[in-house]
Design brief:
With 289 residues, this protein is mostly helical. It has seven helices and six strands, in the order αααββββαβαβαα. The strands form three sheets. It has a two-stranded antiparallel sheet.
Length: 289
């Protein structure tokens, strides 16, 4: 408790506290093993038995890191109630490490497609080619261009996109092109294209913010992995439905406005023709007002 309450415990103090906790845990697990040999754990509830298995794995991982004096291990457990959650190092200023699911989402005409949900930390660049294949299965052809973040612009992804005739957003590899009189126009077009691609890519970033603020993606209270994945899919489903409904209402309003405008213009034209006809009749018969 003294170590846990310390604001900035030293390395030796922290190691001493972790060693003491591991010894306490080893003692308790040994006592439980004796009870298990006597058959006294048969009436243990399913949730408690599952948590006991998680604690065994947690003890094994922490003891291995304590013995080898390191802080990294494969499939590290950080939660007893959610053993499927893994730490994901993001490198942000406020939260350098995040906990949750990694989601790969593609956006086509404002509609979001959840292509992959993973609880393990991995490099997102490997999802680009499967997402392009999923686009081909949905629409029957490859996309003309793909607007991605810098992490997706690997040499392998560039090679695959070039072989399939897909334009990948972002500057090309190598040194920037030298600006001369012959290349000035092309360099200006490339810079404009890069700005347009960055503007188009903002839509997918906005979808994540919208899903967290309005559709509950930032507050998933489920404990099981499958339940959390279901909630993620439902959040994007509702967001897509709202987008399609908004687009349908907007198109209906546009068509209603065009119809009303055409009718109003027709009434104005008829009124103007009638006024011209009355003016001509008044001149022919010499009517004075």
């Amino acid at each position: 408790l003294r170590v846990a309450k310390a604001k900035k415990p030293g390395k030796q103090q922290l190691r001493k506290g972790i060693g003491a906790q591991l010894r306490y845990l080893r003692r308790n697990l040994g006592s439980i093993a004796v009870l298990a040999q006597e058959g006294l754990l048969m009436s243990l509830p399913r949730t408690h038995y599952r948590q006991l298995l998680v604690i065994h794995e947690l003890y094994r991982q922490q003891l291995w890191m304590y013995t080898h004096r390191c802080h990294r291990i494969a499939d590290r457990l950080v939660s007893l109630s959610q053993p499927h959650v893994r730490p994901i190092v993001r490198g942000k200023a406020g939260t350098p490490v995040e906990f949750g699911a990694k989601i790969s989402v593609s956006l086509v005409d404002g509609v979001s497609f959840v292509d992959r949900i993973s609880w393990d930390a991995y490099n997102e660049s490997v999802d680009l080619v499967p997402q392009i294949d999923a686009y081909r299965r949905r629409f029957g052809h490859d996309p003309a261009s793909v607007h991605v973040d810098q992490i997706y612009r690997t040499r392998e992804n560039r090679r695959v996109c070039a072989s399939r005739g897909i334009r990948l957003s972002g500057p090309p590899l190598g040194r920037p092109r030298t600006i001369t009189e012959a290349t000035a126009k092309q360099v200006k077009q490339d810079r404009q294209q890069t700005r347009n691609d960055a503007t188009a890519r903002m839509a997918i970033e906005g979808k994540f913010g919208q899903s967290k603020r309005r559709f509950g993606l930032g507050r998933l209270m489920a404990k099981l992995a499958r339940t959390s994945e279901t909630m993620i899919h439902v959040s994007f489903l509702v967001m897509n439905l709202e987008h399609l409904l908004t687009r349908a209402i907007f198109s209906w309003l546009c068509s209603w406005w065009q119809d009303w405008r055409s009718r109003w213009n027709g009434l104005l034209d008829a009124w103007w023709l009638q006024m011209q006809a009355n003016f001509r009749d008044s001149r022919v018969y010499g009517v004075e007002g």
